[in-house]
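Study this:
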Amino acid sequence: MANKIKWPQGKTFAFTVVDDTDGATVENVRPVYQYLFEKGIFTTKTVWVYPSRDHYQGESLSDEGYRHFVQDLSKKGFEIGFHNAGSGGFTRDETLAALEFFKETLGFYPKLHINHGENEENLYWGSKRFSPLFQKLYGRFKPTVHSRGDEKDSPYFWGDKAKEHITYIRNRVFRQVNTLQADNRFPTREYGKDT
């Protein structure tokens, strides 16, 4: 298969790492980021703005120490992504306030959003990730995940603001490292999913 992607500076591949913030605290992730920084490896760190409302644990930008830690990572060159307002369901107003807090804290809106677990404000998550045929098949074998962030009549809708502020949404999940091998159409645009 010929490489269809034109990488910058004549490179032949890209290696990326996105840190899922679930369970993250300053204590348990600072050593990892110190090591990465010392080696000149800059990855993406996702964050929650608000504390968890469910069984998932971890610190958020609402925690002063964690907020300062994340600000420092951003200044060092690590990308900071949005992993929903927090863990648990967050309404439109809460999610929009979280985006504004993110911007006030870091000086910019996130470029990357990654849905979290079963949050109701997730965008095109669960079976909604797929074409109608695969939605039906997926629904037969997987439990229903309520994903209402893309439904305009939902109290969880924020798809319009995601479209305005977010550049990328990671909505595909693979059980292997080589995503191009799993889906050689990457990166993709989901044309039927323009909220």
